[in-house]
């Protein structure tokens, strides 16, 4: 048999191949790596809080002592110890789950991928906050799932807006499968869904016969250590919960998880096994030892304080230097604040001017599936030092001022 000519290949690509798009966050990677550039673009956790010696020790012991196990294929659902560590982590936010109900995945991005595979056919609709997580939008687009945004305000999804959106989309003859939501310290808006709205959101979804996908990678990173009751706890039979160690331990480990209602649990396990056979056993060993046997809560506490100080630096710089008409969200945890520009100023012009001033951020349009977000931008404060963040904010505000004056 002769090899197919190179020109044939494009015609062989499946319909969904064209749906995957480059991540706008990664687009800024190169410029943000230039030495004189201040980046408020990427939402990377600051790993300087990690006790590297302890982790190195854990890794060395895992290989030296249990190498034949941690280098072998493992359980498709995840190791018992990791599932226990997940249950312990969720309990720290007041969410109580049976470790046997946990599906460990290679990051929560993979968990979302599996859930979308199981729930959605091409053309199905998923509702999501506007704005929402860019990585979820990329996944939905690749899976040919349409996203319709639900109105939100400073307290998160507006329940009446959710109901109206459901009615409108269904009147168009479209099939809605789920609400995808990041209720705590939303990426990108920094907004938290108010506790009093949560039962209503869950009730509306159940009554409408759609699932809730609760994506909660930042919930443990409230600045004051408090937590808001999870959607999963309010309706465990209709909420698929996604969690991650990426922001609270380390993203390079690629350990996340899903906790799904019973009907979804077995399909989720089989879909996961079809995708990766099993999650990395070595990474799970690190997570398990670190979470169950190290003074992890005190590291987490330091991380919370670090992010709180950085958020304060950004909010303080905004208060001092933002031109009239610029507004922003006030996060109570997580990595982001969401800035709105005055009428008539396009964020892409601001971005070009900001890059000239050697500072980058992600424009709001990256977080919308419907062309929205052209007057908004996301500022990530998780990685740079306070004075650098404040300098970055001042440069961006200077760029806005110049554009407003022209
Ligand atoms: N959901 C949200 C809201 C996120 O911000 C991220 C990471 N940026 C993820 C999911 C993916 O996280 P993980 O590293 O666990 O795949």
Brief rundown of the structure:
By secondary structure, the chain is of the alpha/beta class. It is built from 15 helices and 15 strands. It folds into two domains: 9-50 and 298-405, Aspartate Aminotransferase, domain 1; 73-293, Aspartate Aminotransferase, domain 2, CATH 3.40.640.10.
Structure description:
This protein has about 400 residues and is an alpha/beta fold. It folds into two domains: about 10-50 and about 300-405, Aspartate Aminotransferase, domain 1, CATH 3.90.1150.10; about 75-295, 3-Layer(aba) Sandwich (Aspartate Aminotransferase, domain 2). Helix content is about 45%, strand content about 15%. The chain has 15 helices and 15 strands. The protein has helices at about 10, 25, 30-35, 50-70, 80-90, 110-120, 135-140, 160-170, 200-210, 230-235, 260-275, 280-295, 295-320, 345-355, 385-405, and strands at about 40, 100-105, 125-130, 145-150, 150-155, 155, 175-180, 210-215, 240-245, 255-260, 325-330, 335-340, 360, 360-365, 375-380. It has a seven-stranded mixed beta sheet with strand order 2-10-9-8-7-3-4, sandwiched between helices. A hairpin with a 2-residue loop joins β5 (about 150-155) and β6. α5 packs across α12 and α6 crosses α11 (about 260-275). It is globular and about 65 Å long. About 45% of the residues are buried. Bound molecules: 4'-deoxy-4'-aminopyridoxal-5'-phosphate. 4'-deoxy-4'-aminopyridoxal-5'-phosphate (PMP) binds next to α6. 4'-deoxy-4'-aminopyridoxal-5'-phosphate (PMP) binds near residues 215 and 256.
């Amino acid at each position: 048999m002769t090899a197919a000519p190179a020109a044939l290949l494009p015609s062989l690509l499946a319909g969904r191949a064209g749906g995957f798009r480059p991540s706008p966050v990664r687009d800024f990677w190169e410029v943000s790596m230039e030495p004189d550039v201040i980046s408020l673009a990427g939402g990377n956790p600051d790993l300087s809080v990690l006790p590297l010696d302890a982790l190195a020790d854990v890794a060395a012991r895992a290989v030296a002592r249990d190498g034949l196990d941690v280098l072998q294929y493992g359980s498709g659902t995840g190791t018992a110890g990791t599932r226990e560590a997940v249950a312990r982590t969720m309990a720290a936010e007041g969410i109580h789950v049976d470790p046997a109900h946990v599906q460990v995945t290679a990051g929560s991005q993979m968990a979302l991928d599996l859930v979308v595979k199981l729930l959605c056919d091409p053309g199905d609709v998923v509702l999501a906050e506007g704005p929402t997580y860019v990585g979820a939008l990329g996944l939905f687009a690749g899976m040919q799932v349409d996203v319709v945004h639900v109105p939100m305000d400073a307290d998160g999804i507006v329940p009446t807006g959710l109901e109206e959106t459901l009615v409108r989309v269904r009147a168009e003859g479209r099939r809605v499968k789920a609400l995808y939501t990041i209720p705590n310290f939303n990426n990108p808006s920094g907004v938290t869904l108010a506790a009093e709205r949560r039962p209503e959101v869950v009730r509306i979804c159940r009554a409408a016969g759609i699932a809730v996908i609760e994506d909660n990678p930042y919930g443990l990173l409230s600045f004051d250590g408090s937590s808001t009751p999870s959607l999963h706890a309010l309706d465990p039979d209709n909420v698929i919960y996604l969690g991650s160690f990426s922001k609270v331990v380390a993203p390079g480990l690629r350990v996340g998880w899903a906790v799904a209602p019973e009907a979804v649990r077995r399909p989720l396990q089989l879909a996961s096994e079809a995708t990766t056979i099993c999650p990395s056993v070595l990474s799970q060993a690190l997570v398990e030892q670190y979470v169950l046997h190290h003074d992890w809560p005190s590291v987490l506490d330091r991380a919370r304080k670090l992010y709180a100080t950085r958020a304060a630096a950004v909010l303080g710089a905004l208060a001092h230097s933002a031109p009239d008409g610029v507004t922003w969200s006030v996060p109570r945890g997580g990595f982001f604040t969401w800035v709105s520009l005055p009428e008539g100023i396009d964020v892409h012009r601001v971005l070009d001017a900001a890059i000239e001033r050697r500072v980058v951020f992600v424009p709001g349009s990256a977080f919308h599936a419907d062309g929205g977000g052209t007057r908004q931008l996301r500022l990530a404060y998780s990685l740079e030092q306070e004075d650098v963040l404040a300098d970055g904010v001042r440069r961006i505000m200077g760029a806005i001022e110049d554009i407003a004056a022209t």
